[in-house]
Amino acid sequence: MTDFTPFPQLEIPETIAAGPGPGNTDARVLARYAGAGLADHMHADVLRGMVECKQMLRAVMGTQNTYTFGVAGTGWSGLDMMFSAVQPGDKVVMFVNGTFSGIDGLTVRMKAATAEELAANPLDPQAASVVIVDVPHGQSVTGELVEAALAEHTPKWAAMAHWETGSGRVNDIEGFSAACEKHGALGLVDAVSSLGVGDFRIDDYPGVHGWASCPQKGICCLPLTYAPVSFTDTYIDALKATGTRTFCHHPILEARHWGVIDGQDVEKGTYHRTHSAYAVSAFHEALRICLQQTIAQRASDYSFHEAALREAVQAMGCEVTSNMPSLVVLNLPDALAGREMELVQHCRAQNFGIWPTLSEPVQVRIGILNLLSEAAIADIVRRFAAALCELGGEVDQAQVDAVLQRHYGRAMAAE
Ligand SMILES: *Cc1c(COP(=O)(O)O)cnc(C)c1O
Q1: Which atom of ligand 1 is the closest one to the Cα of 217?
Q2: Which residues of the chain have pLDDT under 70?
């Protein structure tokens, strides 16, 4: 096979990423990615960049946890590291209300399964020590539900998604944290879709000891970079007591390269695995953007623009069932019910990247990650209305226009 002719250069068109994620990467981030001058992961400026990222990340996450850094890869990489402390036979209560917390539940069952349980069903183990509490699609995990389940089972670990992106639901993090504290459970939270979008400080939730997020959503740093994670000393002590069977996703070992050794910040990191100077530069810039804009301002911008998009699709006859500020999850008007996949494919064929739900029931998801302007929202609204019409639906354009006018007119008047 020495004469294999290479394919033509890969061309990927411009699209609007108007889904639940990935978000649209900022041009400043891409420029830093392409602008990094060398590839050596032990160069002094790369190590300095990693230490600066670690410090900026603490500010973005609102934490003093020393063990706060990035895991190379995607959201699941960070989650895999966070769940690495869960050992076979550990008692875990996991709250599931959509696709992503469902996969978190699978991860937990894989980690908590005994060798026999894993061998019996390697891809979907039924671990006797794990309780999965299912919450119907479209509903949030409430503090009362967490309280009742933890009171009944008193597990070592409790886990849920902060914001469940599959159904577009915000879960009760305050109630979750309080119940974990009360019942002595160590809380683990999938914050993949909330970090960089919502205004929260993880140190305000003392029942939660492990947090994992992703590069591609609220941090707007897809060019495969780092999944933010943060662990309390209590989590690290629990991990020290049991150990974990991973080198690469070992929280204590990975932290070394970010300049955290034996629980202390040190001036520069030591080798754990090869890091990309390009990824470090991009991540560094993304964190700078978050802090320059401020988490509070971003959160208020997301809520403001989500409200405009929500009202506009409601004016088209859609029913919105989500309550997440970066995402609208909706049912189509009755006349188009059942044609959700067709509509999504129709939009995607025009490089308008909206998404269906990935688990039942089939709904449409439209996201606004890094699309925080009147022009971007108006463009999404126009494209979505056109797609509904192209499928034979009817849109009262005057009413939709009135929503945007009222929303943005009022904003402009207020400025
Ligand atoms: C997107 C998402 C994930 C997965 O993140 P990847 O970057 O695709 O690995 C996990 N959990 C939640 C809540 C998500 O929204």
Answers
A1: 1
A2: 1, 410-415
